[in-house]
Amino acid sequence: MRSILKKISDLIRMPEEQQKNHRFKLLDMDPRKGMNKLAIPMIIAFLFQTGFNIVDTIFVGRLGAEAIAGVSLAFPFQMFIISLCMGVGVGAQSLIARSIGANVRRDANKAAGNAIVLAMLLSIVTTIVGLTVSPYLVSTLGASAKVTDECIRYLTPILVGSIFMFLSINFNFIFRGEGDTKRPMYFMAIGAVSNIILDPIFIFTLDMGVAGAAYATVIARAIATLIIFYDIFVRKRTYVRFNREAFRLNFGIIRRIIDVGIPASLAQLSLSMSLFFLNDMVSPFGDAALAAFGIGFRVESVVFLPMIGFSGAFVSAVGFFKGSHQPEKINLIHRYSLKVLILFMVVCSLLFYAFPELIYNIFSSDTTVVGIGKDYLRTLSIFYPILPFSLLAASGFQGLGRGFPSLGLALIRSGIVSVPLSFMFTMVYGMPVRYIWLSIAIGDAISALVGHLWFKKELSGLGNDITKNI
């Protein structure tokens, strides 16, 4: 017994560099097990992250359809902020993984430090610009005055506290880039639990309504950020080193981050903008349709967690295998991830098609909202099994250090297909709201087909090319 305790103690005290090497060694020796080890904590972590929005939706739903419609209207603006965060984060994650794979630790340090500096600068700009233009943009969406007011009340605290979102998200991407997906899971859990505790206090006890939900979310993220700071700068438990040199702006490193980060950010922005336009086209059908759309999107975000977890792990794994010049293992983890995710999405598709009313009743007792939501889920769920093709393709390109293909797939999905089709069906031909749901599904299908073929072609041509650059 004493020997077992000693081994556990030695593992806990093991230098962080050795622990990181062990994680990448597992990925190298058995890519399937390595992918699971990376992906499962990320799935759980994203579950906690999604819990932020789900908990807000459940509590705000008790305030009425207008309140939940206001929060739904604010969601594209939140997506805009998240897209900026993820742009820097994904770029840093990819570069850190490729640098570690190539055994160039100094570049990994610089990527981490420069990413945090960029995140702080972007948070300042986001707050100033967001507070200035958001009232005007919300007023142009065509929602009722009450819904517009609720949206502004929710959005203002989110914008003011955006620095905590930028920092926490980017630190978590840095951890993932060095092969550590467990700590982001713990930090997101802390934030989610804090949010669950604070939500009813701010919304109901302090009678702050939708603004209370926003304040609870900001404070929860601030708590998680402070704990991350303690872990990094006091306990110093990261593989990358946040020394003075790491924080010194290096334009070569920044360029390599933004080569992946800007397209990734623009891809997320395209989703945000598509939600913005889709909300605008849904709003004439009434507050119930807007609420049904918002609930449906949030519910789907839970369903997509395994895809998001595997795709996030895929970025790190592809980056590591590119840096260590092993393209054959990229092919292996791509095939494995597709099989796992397609099987899961088939199960989700069947459940969502069979029980849509049961799902919507969790969030709203309004029969009109539930009726519209039933049609939404049954239309979209048919296409769930093909979604992994496009998401893994986009993440694979990011891991290789190529950001623009992921942007192209996002534009195909929304700007080229879903939004124009929705406009044609509803605004030109006067079709019912279900044709917006159909347009979204068609965009998903075309993006999946193009993405899979594009990435397979890229994999077939890796060979000698993978040794050129990291």
Could you explain how this protein is built, in words?
This protein is mostly helical and 470 residues long. It has one domain. The chain is 84% helix and 0% strand. The chain is built from 19 helices and no strands. The termini are far apart.
Walk me through the topology.
Blueprint: H1 2-13, H2 16-29, H3 31-61, H4 65-101, H5 105-139, H6 145-160, H7 162-177, H8 182-205, H9 209-234, H10 244-247, H11 251-282, H12 287-303, H13 305-323, H14 327-354, H15 356-361, H16 367-381, H17 387-399, H18 404-428, H19 434-460
Helix pairs in contact: 2-3, 3-8, 3-9, 3-12, 3-13, 4-5, 4-6, 4-7, 4-11, 4-12, 4-13, 5-6, 5-7, 6-9, 7-9, 8-9, 11-18, 12-16, 13-14, 13-17, 14-16, 14-17, 16-19, 17-18, 17-19, 18-19
